Amino acid sequence: MKSIEALSAGGTAGFGRPIPVDDSTIIDASLRDPERFAELFDRHAAVLHRYVVRRLGPDHAEDVVAEAFTRAFAKRHRYALDRSDALPWLYGIATNIIGSHRRAEVRGYRALARTGEDPVAAAFDDRVVARVAASATRERLAAALAKLGRGERDVLLLIAWGDLSYEETARALDVPIGTVRSRLSRARRKITNVLGGTNPTDLIEETP
User: Fold this and answer.
1) What is the residue range of 86's domain?
2) Following DSSP, what letter does each residue of 12-32 receive, concatenated?
3) What total number of domains does the chain contain?
4) Residue in 147, 150, 168 with CA at minimum distance from that of residue 159
5) In this predicted structure, which of 16-25, 114-123, 179-188 has the lowest mean pLDDT?
6) Is 14 a domain residue?
7) Considering only CA atoms, which of 105, 18, 13 is closest in space to residue 59?
8) Per-residue buried b or exposed e for 125-160, using 16+ beta carbons within 10 Å of the residue's own CB
9) What is the percent of the chain with per-residue pLDDT over 70, rounded to a whole number?
């Protein structure tokens, strides 16, 4: 496979470095040259894979990511080319696929809540769990996530683990931004109830 430098259009910037192209340029070019879409995979597959592992564990991750890019390729002609970053779009596609595995996802959280041992446990070692008080273990957080509705969990985790803004989350899920806010509010409230008044997601603020 050619490197993105070799495939990028637009020449080079100082010292022979290639001028980076944004995702929308790659998608647009892929409409005429389908092989260009592979650049999008090279650029975003790893981060998407980490997100899916966090939600479903490693057993399903490769298949979900592969299907996400297959669907993205099929619908690339509908991509809004004024959006230079395609990652929120890809997160949205992957999230829809994760929805078909929601029973496996909830089972994973419940297993972690019971035993503290599960392939998705590593997901609870960074941003979110670092904010949990000593009395609120990651097992209790997993139990709280298992009790969320699908829409609430999707919003919460796209923001907490996908680093998406409210607006990007709304685009990813194809819902109004008001729906994102209301789902996040409900998710926070439910987590607070399960964790006895502690909510590790309270510090998730809206990106301006």
Assistant:
1) 21-194
2) EETTTEEPP--HHHHHHHHTT
3) 1
4) 168
5) 114-123
6) no
7) 105
8) eeebbebbeeebbbbbbbbbbbbbeebbbbbbbbbb
9) 66
Angle at 106 between CA 58 and CA 123, to 5 degrees: 45
Q: What's the average model confidence in pLDDT over 179-183?
A: 96
Task: Provide the β-strand partners of residue 13.
Answer: 17
User: 200 is written with which tokens?
Assistant: 């590790």
The answer to whether position 114 is within a domain reads: yes
The count of other CB atoms within 10 Å of the CB of residue 102 is: 15
- What six digits make up the tokens of 129? 């769990």
- Is 47 inside a domain boundary? yes
Q: Given the structure tokens 């041992």, which residue do they identify?
A: 117
Closest CA to 30 of 64, 62, 65, 69: 69
Q: Report CA-CA distances (Å) from 39 to 3, 78, 137, 147.
A: 8, 18, 40, 38
CA atoms within 13 A on the CB side of 170: 13
